Amino acid sequence: MRTDSGYARGSLLTVDGLGVDEVARILELTDRLAEMAAAERAKVLAGRRVALLFYESSTRTRTSFELAAKSLGATTTLVSDKSSSIEKGESLKDTGLTLRALGAECIVLRHPAGGAPFVLARTTGLPVLNAGDGMHQHPSQALLDLRTILARLGLKDKSVDEHVLEGVTVTICGDIRHSRVARSNAMLLPRLGAKVLLCGPPELLPEEARSLGGVEIVREFDAALAQSQVVMMLRIQRERLAGLEIDLADYVGRYQLNEERLRAYAPKAIVMHPGPMIRGLEIQGEVADSPQSAIEEQVSHGLDVRAALLVRALVRERRVAA
Ligand code: NCD
User: Fold this and answer.
1) In terms of Cα–Cα distance, which of 162, 134, 144 is closest to 272?
2) How far apart are CA 126 and CA 68, in angstroms?
3) How far apart are CA 276 and CA 60, in angstroms?
4) Are 260 and 199 contacting, i.e. CB atoms less than 8 angstroms apart?
5) Can you tell me the distance from the alpha carbon of 204 to that of 297, in angstroms, rounded to the nearest whole number?
6) Residues 6 or more apart from 208 whose CB is under 8 A from it?
7) Which of 66, 181, 298 for a ligand 1 pocket mutation test, highest count of atoms within 8 Å of Cβ?
8) What is the best residue among 137, 141, 272 to mutate for testing ligand 1's pocket, by most ligand atoms within 8 Å of CB?
9) For residue 321, pLDDT beyond 50
10) Is the pLDDT of residue 322 over 50?
């Protein structure tokens, strides 16, 4: 198991080893920041510098980290692989050291290689926030998903402990194999008492996924839905398929979350998707737009949770946000 210990305090590299107490503290800080008036909030990280280092495309994650940092008064700079010396072959280590020399105090990293945030944290000594590394982890997504679930189930004001999601079953359906979102959620949610069902065809959900522990594989979507209070849909990650062929018509027939299926098997379930979603493939547009959908709420919670993660990374004396 690889955890955050040994790296700069305030780093969030993986949910491995992220204790329930720490999750509770992050969510409390999220609430406190969300309740602050804008002017007060803008003082929390005034004058601090945050670098956003993105080697892969992103809409929600990048924008929410950036807007969260700005709302706290921090200065942000975006370095993306498309327009920087990364294109000229500069290594992650040298890019990180350059950002540190320029005064960056925290780096938010998205990278196609699993484990890259650990390398960056080690070489720079700075707090690093993992914004998605390859097929490995997406810890801030798991935290924002958790906050969305707690809010939708009316549990937001309950204390977050290992029982808070007892009796809640969450189905994660789709391309589990390539999904860092699935991995982080499947590790985090059972720690809070939830039951996690993974659903998808063997090509996209190998039997080895059981090794995540605390999860069950249910191949038949309708059977998984019938047990679930929450259903999280995932995109097929075409960019990571590496020659794997999927019969899309067959996939849609078996695994698309459509109105008919939702009405028949999970008429009250909360529908989630980390985005980007492909309407008409893993999810029908009508379902994404329905009252059951919490997809836009996930995005808003992302802004709040990422603000807390930035404060956690940059403020030693967290009383400042009380
Ligand atoms: C996901 C990601 O990049 O891991 N998106 C996100 O961060 N919200 C999922 C995906 O790319 O399908």
Assistant:
1) 144
2) 19
3) 8
4) no
5) 27
6) none
7) 181
8) 141
9) no
10) no
For residue 177, pLDDT over 90 is answered with yes
DSSP assignment of 141-158? HHHHHHHHHHHHTT-TTS
Q: Provide the 3-class DSSP secondary structure of residue 75.
A: strand
- Kindly give, in sequence order, each residue whose CB lies less than 8 Å from that of residue 57, ignoring residues fewer than 6 positions away: none
Residue 89 confidence (pLDDT): 80
Spatial contact of 139 and 13, defined as CB atoms under 8 Å apart:
yes
Ligand 1 site residues (CB inside 6 A) read: 60-61, 132, 138, 141, 180-181, 235, 237, 274-276
Bridge-based pairing state of the strands 75-80 and 49-54: parallel
* pTM higher than 0.85: yes
Summarised one tens digit per residue, pLDDT across range 245-263 is 889 999 999 999 999 999 9
Buried b (16+ CB within 10 A) or exposed e, 240-264: eeeeeeeeeeebeebbbbbeebbee
Instruction: Give me the pLDDT at residue 319, please.
Output: 53
* pLDDT tens per residue across span 114-139: 999 999 999 999 999 999 999 999 99
